[in-house]
């Protein structure tokens, strides 16, 4: 199939505008309309991964971490990043990364961790703002229901577990069309009064084009009056980290054993175990120290993540237990998630999980 078809499905699950500003998710190498016949999935893209793709006859590599992250000024093969890029281009292999946008969706990277730990009622720990907009438009009473249906079908009106949400108020609209108009109601040259419904509904920013098309194609008026407002509301289903509850509280050492087993962790760096059971658990795949204050404020008993620096462990201040399981370990099941996402939509597409462990860290035990 065309690469653009696969990308559209992945970005419907984890839209690109959900990624952090510093990130570089999306298509890194390749043409959107190229034909892809098989894909290799890995956490990182290394030279060994590209070699494996060549051996397995895969012309697409999908990874969590983008190989091109800080930008390239030269591509001479001097660094491992440049060598990966050169080898992929020479062998006509497309590279696609789905990084912090996959971190930020409810059933993404952190959703996998929460599920593996058996957390109940898991929700986003730090929801993102500025991802919502409000549409306000005015429609004749008789056509209002048809217009609402079209807007809802385009994706408007979803709030948490509710859909088809809108606010409606009756009012009177006035207009006067000149000689170049062909008004749906009223007469040219005369001020017309029409009973209208003011329709308000919200939508996510990435759906704006679809919402406007639905509005303009289904509104009866020749000139459609509408307003779009940016909202600062948090979007509770999108953001960093997650927090949930274990079925029952367990002692600190038992929790660490559970964590080591469920996350296949070789070693866990942690703060001092506290004299209370652990039940409420915050998680963040990858480097999550920036969420420590949020985890404490949410009342977490433990915070599972990676890449804590020495002095940052002190910031726990005996309010919770920090459990640093390692960057690779916290995200290693992301590849399985990506395969599931793709196979659910394209069960006959050839997709393979890498046989290589791309963790650059080794442990001497």
TrEMBL record:
Gene3D superfamilies: 3.30.70.120, NIF3 (NGG1p interacting factor 3)-like. A divalent metal cation 2 binds at residue 64. InterPro entries: DUF34/NIF3 (IPR002678), DUF34/NIF3_bac (IPR017221), DUF34/NIF3_sf (IPR036069), N-reg_PII/ATP_PRibTrfase_C (IPR015867). A divalent metal cation 1 binds at residues 65, 103, 327, 331. GO terms for molecular function: metal ion binding. One of its GO terms (cellular component) is cytoplasm. It comes from the Bacteria. The keyword Transferase does not apply. Pfam families: DUF34_NIF3. Keywords: Metal-binding. The keyword Metal-binding applies. Homohexamer. PANTHER family: GTP CYCLOHYDROLASE 1 TYPE 2 HOMOLOG, NGG1 INTERACTING FACTOR 3. Belongs to the GTP cyclohydrolase I type 2/NIF3 family. This is GTP cyclohydrolase 1 type 2 homolog. It comes from Pedobacter steynii.
């Amino acid at each position: 199939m065309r690469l653009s078809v696969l990308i559209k499905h992945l970005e419907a699950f984890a839209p690109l505008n959900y990624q952090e500003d510093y990130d570089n998710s999306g298509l890194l190498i390749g043409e959107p309309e190229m034909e892809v016949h098989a894909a290799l999935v890995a956490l990182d893209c290394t030279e060994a991964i590209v070699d494996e793709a060549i051996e397995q006859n895969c012309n697409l590599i999908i990874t969590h971490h983008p190989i091109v992250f800080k930008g390239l000024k030269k591509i001479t093969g001097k660094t491992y990043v440049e060598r990966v890029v050169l080898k992929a281009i020479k062998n006509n292999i497309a590279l696609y990364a789905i990084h912090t946008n996959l971190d930020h969706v409810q059933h993404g990277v952190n959703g996998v961790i929460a599920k593996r730990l058996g957390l109940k009622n898991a929700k986003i720990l730090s929801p993102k703002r500025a991802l919502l907009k409000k549409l306000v438009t005015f429609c004749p009473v008789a056509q209002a229901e048809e217009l609402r249906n079209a807007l809802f079908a385009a994706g408007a009106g979803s709030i948490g577990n509710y859909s088809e949400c809108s606010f409606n108020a009756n009012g009177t609209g006035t207009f006067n069309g000149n000689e170049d108009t062909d008004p749906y109601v009223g007469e040219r040259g005369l001020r017309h009064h029409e009973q209208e419904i003011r329709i308000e509904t919200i939508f996510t920013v990435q759906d704006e084009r679809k919402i406007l098309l639905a509005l303009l194609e289904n509104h009866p008026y020749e000139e459609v009056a509408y307003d779009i407002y940016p909202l600062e509301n948090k979007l509770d289903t999108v953001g960093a980290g997650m927090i949930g509850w274990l079925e029952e509280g367990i002692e600190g050492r038992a929790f660490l054993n559970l964590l080591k087993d469920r996350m296949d962790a070789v070693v866990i760096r942690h703060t001092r175990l506290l004299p209370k059971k652990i039940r409420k658990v915050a998680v963040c795949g990858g480097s999550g120290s920036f969420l420590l204050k949020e985890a404490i404020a949410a009342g977490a008993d433990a915070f599972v993540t990676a890449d804590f620096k020495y002095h940052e462990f002190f910031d726990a201040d005996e309010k919770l237990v920090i459990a640093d399981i390692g960057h690779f370990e916290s995200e290693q099941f992301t590849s399985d998630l990506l395969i599931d996402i793709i196979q659910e939509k394209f069960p006959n597409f050839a997709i393979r999980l890498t046989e290589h462990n791309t963790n650059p860290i080794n442990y001497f035990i």
